[in-house]
Design goal:
Helices cover 53% and strands 14% of the residues. By secondary structure, the chain is of the alpha/beta class.
Length: 275
């Protein structure tokens, strides 16, 4: 019976080898797993590092943007205040402009009215000038009527120039009238002390210490006159003697004060009697 059991019992198995092989396979699986886990961990770490780096950059950009935004907000507030101020000033300027335009229209109307009045005055002044010239010519024609001396220049008349050049007002002169007769001048030659023939209504005697020959005056009421002669009774700056040919006319003019204007100062000789 002993032998039977011995004969029928199985042979002992190689369990150690099998376990080693199994353990070896398991170690390889663990190694690969560890490697994979390491690679995954490294990848996650690298990814996290990149994400963190991006986060830091985004944070810095965000802070910069926030700072700029705050600055822009402050600037925008200042700009809004400045814009409000400029709008107010612009509105005031518009109001002032409208007032100026309105005032300018009024001024234009006033200027037009003044221009119209001025045109009327110019027209009236021309008429007065023509009347004045006509009166001067009449006075000077009357002055040329009477006894003629041996030498004299006939007055040709004054033509209207649209204005009267009176010159500078000198003041009131004491004026008389004289004739180039023998009784008044000692001869009847009719030659003035300037060497030029007498011109009735134009020639006047003056004190040539003050007024050189050739000086042109405008005597209100008598017209233009030229310093051409002197006289023993004509002394002083404010004195003249008006030349006429008729004694009655000279007597009618008498001795009186006249408003005298200086048109042009002479050079010591008579260069022109054209006005």
């Amino acid at each position: 019976m002993y032998n039977h059991e011995a004969a029928s019992s199985p042979e002992p198995r190689n369990t150690i080898g099998n376990e080693y092989t199994s353990l070896k396979k398991n170690n390889k699986g663990y190694f690969f797993t560890v490697c994979i886990l390491f690679i995954v961990t490294a990848a996650l770490y690298a990814n996290n590092f990149l994400v963190y780096k991006s986060y830091r950059e985004l944070k810095n950009q965000f802070e910069i943007t926030t700072s700029k935004y705050k600055s822009l907000t402050v600037n925008n507030t200042d700009l809004n205040v400045e814009n409000s101020r400029l709008k107010k000033e612009n509105e005031e300027l518009k109001q002032n402009y409208n007032r100026i335009i309105s005032r300018n229209e009024e001024i234009i109307k006033q200027i037009e009215a003044i221009q119209k009045k001025n045109d009327e005055l110019v027209k009236r002044n021309r008429e007065l000038v023509e009347d004045n010239i006509a009166l001067q010519n009449s006075v000077k024609m009357a002055a040329s009527v009477g006894i003629k001396p041996q030498n004299y220049s006939k007055f040709q008349g004054i033509s209207s120039r649209g204005e009267l050049q009176r010159g500078t007002y000198l003041g009131k002169f004491l004026g008389t009238a004289y004739t180039p007769s023998k009784e008044e001048c000692g001869n009847s030659k009719g030659i003035t002390n300037s060497g030029e023939p007498i011109i009735p209504g134009i020639s006047i005697a003056i004190d040539n210490k003050y007024w050189p020959f050739g000086t042109v005056f405008y005597i209100k009421g008598l017209g233009y006159a030229v310093a051409m002669d002197t006289g023993s009774a004509i002394k002083g700056k404010y004195r003249f003697d008006f030349a006429v040919f008729d004694k009655k006319f000279a007597k009618a003019l008498g001795s009186r004060e006249w408003d005298v204007y200086l048109v042009k100062e002479g050079k010591g000789y008579v260069e022109s009697t054209v006005f």
